[in-house]
Amino acid sequence: MKWSLPALAALLLFYPFILTGPFYWDIGVAFLLAAISASAWNIVGGYAGQVSVGHSMFFGVGAYTPLLFYHLWGLPPVAGVPAGMLVSLALAVAIGMPTFRLQGHYFSMATIAVAELIRIFVGTWDLVGAAIGLQGPAVGRAWWDLTFRSELPYYYIFLAVLAVVLYTTFEVERSRFGYYLRAIKAGERAARSLGVPVRATKLKALMLSAVFTSVAGSLYSIKTGFIDPESGFGILVSVQMVIVAALGGAATLFGPLIGALLLVPLQTATNTWFGGGGSGLTYILYGGIIVLLARFEPGGMHEWWQHVAPRLMRRSHAA
Amino acid sequence: MLLSAQNISKAFGSFLAVRGADLAVAEGEIIGLIGPNGAGKSTFFNCLAGDTVPTTGRVLFDGIDVTRASAEAHARAGIGRTFQVPATFEDMTVLENVMVGAFLRHHHRGAARETALRIVEMTGLTRQSAQRARSLGTPGRKRLEIARVLATGPRLMLLDEALAGLTPTELQQAIALVRRIHELGITLVIVEHIMEVIMTLAQRVLVFNQGHVIAHGKPREVVANEAVIEAYLGRGHRRRRREAS
Ligand SMILES: Nc1ncnc2c1ncn2[C@@H]1O[C@H](COP(=O)(O)OP(=O)(O)OP(=O)(O)O)[C@@H](O)[C@H]1O
Ligand SMILES: [Mg+2]
């Protein structure tokens, strides 16, 4: 297992040279974005067990702000990234304070409701382009507009962000904060009896998660140069984060990565086979995965591997 | 007085689970709390630990009113409690469970781990320390609950039937463990149905029935008390007890 981390890092670093061409690079970028978003979600949804199904609210804020900065003031989109993070932070506090009084499914439903309200509201708000959405600079004015013709620069920018998110998660896992998150997930009442400040800890997790999710949204809109209510605040954005994390293994460091590794190619394949475009297909795919996970392996592929790996090892030793 | 609870009542709807109970605990004491099922012992503990706010009355800990303080604040002040139905963190290892407690007084992982290791050893859980809590049986989980609370560095521990369901050998070990905890200078209030535990450990016993204290005194006096036997223990009580546990 000692070589697995360097191997993974090398694989991600050299992937664009192993599988070359825009098609594979596009999948690579989509994979990284899914991994970043799901890792961000994982902090509050996985470790703390507060299953938000409304994380698109942070993704959308992060996606809109850069293009809004360009649209309103002609600033380079990147300039809007910190503002998006700040708004997401404020939103996290505003959402977390009342909803963390709710338990389990009620919290999930509350987050869906808030995200949907924001989506509907943004769709009617002229300042942010209403239903049409916003566009970034069609042609880059300089390098700082980050409009590259090739996917390659985006791949490495996204990879750097993923590294930051994973490293932060790694540090969280080892810290008091991380232990408290897992204790809260396992039992709030018992956690409280041991002096864990439950609501403050949950709120901190949501804030951290929101900031990273916001950055994911910013990366998305800067790269595509376009955002509308559905691709920013749509329910599929939230559901994808939940599914990617759950598929790979929520509350584990590399679970979201594994989930993205499985889901993104699958999604690309189904889209090319069945002509793509139809988001109805995405719903069916997601629904199918949820049913399979709930039925066979609620712990995701990470848990499944933990069962399977020792058996494989034994067999290979015996042979 | 380390802990002083005055006129505590707790209502669930129109039903009073605790009605006007008093308890005063001096530093260094071991107090036993007994009473039949449904007498309100656990509910009373919940009021003392900040798990629920009593309907009437007040709780003073070390002279400070903590009646309305949160459970977290109680833990920080030095009141630790175990749960009658073990509430261990099932997916975390034994050591990690104890570390959660240790983090209350230690911010850094290394220090918390050191304290936790020491307590895991003291409570006899070293062999299982890398196992997930879910793999322990009920006796192991109860021991883990004690270890976890101990790691928070409490001045007062409230044990709610922490010694129930043990084999005779395990029971002797558990009694020895409670003695060691007491020797550390920790004050204890223990709810227990097993009379052997009460008789050997408690310096004073309170008898709970229908939400209030019907008798108190030295263990021998209480069990010999005719009124207690008649009014509370009743005939066939011991047999029912044994069947229940
Ligand atoms: N949350 C609650 N809502 C309603 N009634 C409750 C609640 N908790 C406890 N009760 C009731 O209050 C009474 C006292 O319960 P409690 O658990 O405090 O008794 P106990 O003395 O600990 O009993 P045991 O020896 O069985 O543990 C019982 O009749 C119980 O049904
Ligand atoms: Mg009880």
Write up what this structure looks like.
The complex is a heterodimer of chains A (319) and B (245). Chain A has 319 residues and is mainly alpha-helical. Helices cover 75% and strands 1% of the residues of chain A. Chain A has a two-stranded antiparallel ribbon. The model of chain A has no long low-confidence stretch (mean pLDDT 88). Chain B is α/β, with parallel strands linked by helices and 245 residues long. Chain B has one domain: P-loop containing nucleotide triphosphate hydrolases (Rossmann fold, 3-Layer(aba) Sandwich). Helices cover 40% and strands 24% of the residues of chain B. Chain B is built from 10 helices and 10 strands. The chains are: A mainly alpha (319), B alpha/beta (245). The interface between A and B is medium-sized, with 20 and 30 residues. The structure holds adenosine-5'-triphosphate and magnesium ion. Magnesium ion binds at residues 41-42, 84, 160 of chain B. The site of adenosine-5'-triphosphate has 11 residues of chain B, from α1.
In short:
The complex is a heterodimer of chains A (319) and B (245). Chain A is mainly alpha-helical. Chain A has helices at residues 4-18, 22-47, 56-73, 81-99, 105-122, 152-174, 176-186, 188-193, 198-224, 229-233, 235-248, 255-273, 279-296, 300-318; strands at 134-135, 226-227.
Provide the number of structural domains of chain A: 1
Number of helices of chain A: 14
Residues in helix, % of chain B: 25-40%
Please state how the strands of the largest beta sheet of chain B are arranged side by side: 6-7-8-3-9-10
CATH level 3 topology of chain A: ABC transporter involved in vitamin B12 uptake, BtuC
Main structural class of chain B:
alpha/beta
Name of the top-level CATH class of chain A: Mainly Alpha
User: In whole angstroms, how far apart are the ends of chain B?
Assistant: 34 Å
- Taken as a percent bin, the fraction of beta residues of chain B is 15-25%
Low-confidence stretches of chain B: 241-245
Series of secondary-structure elements of chain A, N-terminal to C-terminal: HHHHHEHHHHEHHHHH
- What ligand molecules are bound, each kind once? adenosine-5'-triphosphate, magnesium ion
What is the count of β-strands of chain A?
A: 2
What characteristic shape of chain A results from the CA principal axes?
globular
Largest sheet of chain A: 2 strands, antiparallel
